[in-house]
Task: structure prediction
Amino acid sequence: MKNVIKEVKNNRAEAEVLIEYAKTECNVKNVLPVLDAILTNKPTNTLDRQSWEIAQFIADKTSYIYVEIDADVNFENDEWGRSVAVSGGTTPTGITIQNKNNLMILRQEVDDILETVGHNQLYRITGNPVFNGFLLPSLLWVKRNEPRVFGMTSVVSSPKDFLALQLTGKLRTEPTDALATGAFDRVANDWSSLVLEAVGLERSLFPEVAPTSQPYGGLLPEVAKRFGLPAGIPVYGGSDQAMGAMGLGLVKPGQAMVALATGGQFVVIGEPGLIDNRRRLHTLSHGVEKTGMYMAATLSAALSMRWFKEEVIQDTKTSYPDFYYGIQDIPAGSDGVIFHPYLAGERTPYFNSALRGGFSGLSVAHNQKHLQRAIIEGVSFSMKQCLHVFEQMNMPIRSIILTGGGAKNPIWQQIMADVLNRSMEISTVTDHSPFGAAVFAKFAPKKFVGLSSFYKSVINKGEEIKPNPASVKIYEPIFEEYVSIADAKHRRARRKQRHK
Result:
């Protein structure tokens, strides 16, 4: 069967100008095939470095979105072609607020929300601590600092809801996305009038809410024609976390995922309606109704290693497999070096944006590889703090899937298993959020009948990483020291905030 790649260019005119400029002024003839290779993640024999650099710039600049379909699919008989789903994060479309050092500058808005609504009351309503980057403080920042822009704003939207608008002509949202905004009532499954009134925002700014299992609408004829899909098929959507859970087969209580990407997430499926009275967890909404999903998170997981490699060592050329080589020769515990990954503050369990990281225990006996191993161990200790929160809430965890970029490296895999003292299965599913969106689109119209059988037949069991008993024993006292230092850092950061 023949594969067809069809493209949507967010900035088509700009892309065409850049491509023409590259061809005429830069005398680059290979930019189009290289651009296609970059966007479709396919190898090419072109070795022209200038073509690669220009094509990569155009790909980044113009925000291409590619959809791969099969030209020979009979959509009348193939249920994969009968519905569409989109997924994405909850940052509001068009709002990215940073200072010149790329640091979020929403601390005042977060403090105002907590003072106005109250820490405990906000958490009881939303199930989430509010943090820099949430929609609510971002919107308040725009209202305060860009009143002209705010005055022209009729409605706010998450990226995936905006994409669904382009596909169906209808703007709305659903609980998996709305719950992570800081303004959504987890019990009422609607925007919280109490929160919105307290911060001075109108309900009309927020889109209508419908169940995740209810489609936005049907695919518009002009969009259907462009993609070669049947017009009118239902379009569904869900948050990145909810669709990621679907893509990994996490639909039953006790199933869990540790994702090591830029940040780290520890997601556990549990009974719906649970609440952490100490405000350390994010309450998420699962795509499958009457299924609870809860997340603990660290902000700088793989980001910590990238920061060390590119900013501290200033090594942008060595591949990561080569960069990791030699860490295996450093003993567990990094000969006394401990790293706290608070490069952008921390979420679980502290929720403190002023918390700062660092190395401790350094001496002249240590080298670069000690620090690299300490970074992996520090991220793993942070994830163990996440695990402790779930254990303290008596949430059963029967299985853990390890996924994300960090999960691809065997050193990360083993250290994480040793620190957590848990067996972990390496995910065999790449891009689990897009795959989960496809699974959701397939089964939502059927009310998820047959989903369990589908997972058994499609998702292969990955490699199991078991903890090393000797390393587990070494890490236990080091983790206690890590927590002691972290607690002291947290208290010191809070004192500084109070005295400002």
